[in-house]
Automatic annotation (TrEMBL):
GO terms for molecular function: metal ion binding; prenyltransferase activity. This is Polyprenyl synthetase family protein. PANTHER family: ALL TRANS-POLYPRENYL-DIPHOSPHATE SYNTHASE PDSS1 (PTHR12001:SF69), GERANYLGERANYL PYROPHOSPHATE SYNTHASE (PTHR12001). GO terms for biological process: isoprenoid biosynthetic process. Gene3D superfamilies: Farnesyl Diphosphate Synthase. It comes from Spirosoma arboris. Coiled coil: none annotated. Its cofactor is Mg(2+).
Length: 324
């Protein structure tokens, strides 16, 4: 039986509700255009996985308090800012099945909205002397930006190694989930070692989360049909990197040529997908993902047992079982 987000949230249901209220309040602005856009964002928000990591890890390490709420808000503001900017960077007109901010209001507005959300986060931290939380989150946002730039740099060269792939996903995805867990632990005042353990746990979960995301490109039982969007965008992910490394010289050159020159043709994208599937790329990436999850669950076992910890174990499992 697979658990829903609502099941997993049970021990922090009250906190998540209150957090959402606080978060809506934080996004308010006197500038009508901004207010209109932030309302649009709040209405179309995702599953709130990141605040869940913050609250659950705080509960695992101690007593959830006002700092935990501020940490969760800081993370969610930066995360939202990064997605608004990401759609500008990727020239994407959609986010979670709705029009993106840049699609509706143009790039210049989207860039400024992202800046606004980021500074709301900075203010929240500075006004409340949350120096430690701010340090953790700032480090993560810096890594997000570096990861994005590394990805752009490498997209031009199709010979990316597994090591580079892991570095990109560690920076662009895992750093923020790591920060969620570190912020949760830090907010309840545990020592540095425990905050660091929480961070490493989050990083492993984040890497597994992104491998799962990359596997979606090859289809799921629910969707049935592969997407191939990453291939179209020349994004080299683990299943493909593995398959290319295994292939002989001629086969490798043929596939690289398709990605380089013909990746806008659906038939050709299907050819790359079949190549990856026939080479065992899906199994290989799934195994790598499961390994990270096993390591994360083991790290979590070193924390004191509680209903929060049980939920966190479930949340880790959910990140790789989810169907979207
Ligand atoms: C989604 O990735 C987005 C990110 C991993 C983060 C992007 C970060 C930035 C653009 C820098 C943010 C800077 C500040 C100041 C907040 P994706 O494009 O691989 O996936 P998606 O579009 O499908 O979600
Ligand atoms: Mg994107
Ligand atoms: Mg992107």
């Amino acid at each position: 039986m697979s658990l829903t987000v609502a099941d997993i949230q049970a021990p922090i249901a009250v906190e998540m509700e209150l957090f959402e209220q606080k978060f809506r309040g934080l996004m308010k602005s006197d500038v009508m255009l901004l207010d209109q856009i932030t309302k649009y964002i709040v209405k179309r928000k995702g599953k709130q996985l990141r605040p869940m990591f913050v609250f659950l890890m705080a509960g695992v390490c101690g007593q959830i308090n006002e700092s935990t709420y501020r940490g969760a808000s800081l993370i969610e503001l930066c995360h939202t800012a990064s997605l608004v900017h990401d759609d500008v960077v990727d020239e994407s007109n959609y986010r979670r099945g709705f029009f993106s901010i840049n699609a509706l209001w143009k790039n210049k507005v989207a860039v400024l909205v992202g800046d606004y959300l980021l500074t709301r986060g900075l203010f929240l931290a500075v006004d409340n002397n949350e120096h430690d939380l701010l340090r953790i989150v700032t480090m993560a946002v810096r890594e997000l930006s570096e990861g994005e730039l590394l990805q752009i740099e490498k997209a031009r060269r199709l010979d990316i190694t597994e090591a580079v792939y892991y570095e990109i996903i560690r920076q662009k995805t895992a750093s923020l989930i790591a920060a969620c867990c570190a912020v949760g632990a830090q907010s309840v005042g545990v020592d540095k070692t425990m905050v660091e353990q929480a961070r490493i746990f989050g990083e492993k979960v984040g890497i597994a989360f992104q491998i799962k995301d990359d596997l979606f490109d090859y289809g799921t039982a629910e969707v049935g049909k592969p997407l191939g969007i990453d291939i179209k965008e020349k994004k080299m992910t683990l299943p493909l990197i593995y398959a290319l490394n295994k292939a002989g010289f001629l086969e490798k050159r043929r596939i690289i040529n398709i990605i380089k020159n013909e990746s806008e043709k659906p038939k050709k994208v299907d050819e790359v997908i079949s190549f990856v599937k026939n080479s065992g790329g899906i199994e290989y990436a799934t195994q790598a993902m499961n390994q990270y999850v096993t390591e994360a669950q083991a790290l979590l076992n070193a924390f004191p047992d509680s209903t929060y910890r049980q939920s966190l174990h479930q949340l880790v499992q959910y990140t790789i079982d989810r169907s979207k």
